[in-house]
């Protein structure tokens, strides 16, 4: 009797093995992954579609993996992640960015994925250079970037420039100042700025402008407290340049009560000649901008400064939002890695590019006719240029807070650039304690 | 046990009270105690909590941003006591006099803003204050008062006044209703006699109504203080505390520290600080009220 039953068991086992997907491999156990993300369709547009397609591919190829999605808009998402982190109840996979990453890493809530990346050279080779900067700590990589984009692009209206007698976009900072006074003389707002939420001046303007003066090495030396300070003359010069621009009336006088959406509105209404924002504005421009303004819109970078140490083709940017996972093991880990691979694969990259979004990986084959002229211009700028750090991605949130609110005060003449530099340095030193 | 049908049995009483008390303990008292505990830690949300004793409180005591936001709260409170209670009293005098027609209509109009969401009010007033499209600057222009036109929410010198205006505007109706109710409890004959004696209009308000409802006014002052110590949403929508920190109030500073800078320990300390300051101010205002009565 015993023999028979064990024979039956053995047979059943055999059947089980042969019928499982991937004959010869171990039967894949059922895995459920909870995924908390910000790809809400209505908000993210094409990016959310590309994201969903990638998840569907994983589901199709791996029937054993169940992905339970929970999607929120970014702002509420980060609040939720913080709350879940406080209670140590984070889902298997989620989206995190900026200051959250430092908190997650220092509390050991996310796991390093170096081994998984190194085990698959093909996967590794797909990423664009520099996209892991923010998520690497002591040589360990903790997640994969969702997208990568520049945060400081000058969108300018060619027609208004022509009308003001400016044939070409300024190549240097002093030329830009001349252009600003010419545009102002014609009654336009030279640079639309909506800095109510305080990050625009810092993330979109100062990050690049300061790099023009200081160069990138200085930034990392200052950040890591290795011989450079925010009170160094080159950094103060960059603040001074921005303050000078504000003093000459380059910005609209209500810049501190408008937000970045409203800064675009001034531009759309042909009342402003330029605005400075990141690549995320390209999609909105395509949607909201009147046809004639859109046709006249060109992209440029913040021009070179006299005697500056930074490269004039550089722009602040890179990856700022990441897919990360818990400290997973075994089957769950394998499944999560599969999801991460699909979300950084060539198909995902191609779909993103076709939707005029900017993936952190080299896209596979895509239909170039779907890419709009402005997105094309942007892709060219990225090809020619390089990314330099964005302040609010690299620095701690309390330091950023001091910079952000200080810039707002400086732009209305409340404090001098020197005072602001001192405040920033003081906060930076306080953090080291 | 007793035959009074209106008297409820003790057990029934406890049963009825239980849900309310439980909710209050769970959602008000417990978080408050937790927050007091957190205020002794340096904590950024994860598993790593570092006990710092009174360190956070020492930092709070010399934190210029906190005291600046406290100053702003005081400005809001003073403006609201003058604006809301003052206007409400004046209107109350008007509503109880014979001068005003269509009282029902006016009362409804005055009360409508009270039920609006703070976010809506904030947005409406942001539009009103808008430099180019706002109705305020348009009116000034129409009145040939161009000199007064300015970006109302962008100048640190006036921004506290600009953000207080919607607050005042919104809650006049609430205090009006409170005062009207108090006036209705005044004996009619008192008002009639005063009118016969020739005490009408503002004098009637000054010498008859105000003294008779002085207890209600005191309660209203207390409500006004406690409400404005935790003012947050209007200002958050309109300026986000800017430009710089010039319109930052304490509740927003606590929020910003906790959820933007992610210092949850210090954020809790600020909240406890708000609690202590609020209780102190209410205590002082009560003492002042009592002295006046004596």
TrEMBL record, chain A:
Q: Which residues form the signal peptide?
A: 1-24
On whether Transcription regulation is a keyword of this UniProt record, the answer is: no
Protein name listed in UniProt? Carbohydrate ABC transporter substrate-binding protein (CUT1 family)
Q: What is the protein's species of origin?
A: Hydrogenispora ethanolica
Is Signal given among the entry's keywords? yes
Q: Which keywords does the record carry? A: Signal
TrEMBL record, chain B:
Q: Example GO biological process term? A: transmembrane transport
Note whether Glycosyltransferase occurs among the keywords.
no
| Major subcellular site | membrane
Query: Gene3D superfamilies under this entry?
Result: MetI-like (1.10.3720.10)
Membrane topology per record: Multi-pass membrane protein
Q: Which domain of life is it from?
A: Bacteria
The record's section on Pfam families has: BPD_transp_1 (PF00528)
For this UniProt record, the keywords arranged alphabetically read as follows: Cell membrane, Membrane, Transmembrane, Transmembrane helix, Transport
Please provide one cellular component term from the Gene Ontology annotations of this protein. Answer: plasma membrane
Q: Does the keyword Mitochondrion apply?
A: no
| Subcellular localization, as worded in the UniProt entry | Cell membrane
Domain called ABC transmembrane type-1: residue spans = 70-285
Membrane-crossing residue ranges in chain numbering: 12-34, 74-96, 108-128, 168-186, 264-284
| InterPro entries linked | ABC_transporter_permease (IPR051393), MetI-like (IPR000515), MetI-like_sf (IPR035906)
Protein family according to the UniProt entry: Belongs to the binding-protein-dependent transport system permease family.
PANTHER family hit by this protein: ABC TRANSPORTER PERMEASE PROTEIN, INNER MEMBRANE ABC TRANSPORTER PERMEASE PROTEIN YCJO
Q: What is this protein called?
A: Carbohydrate ABC transporter membrane protein 1 (CUT1 family)
Q: Tell me what organism the protein belongs to.
A: Hydrogenispora ethanolica
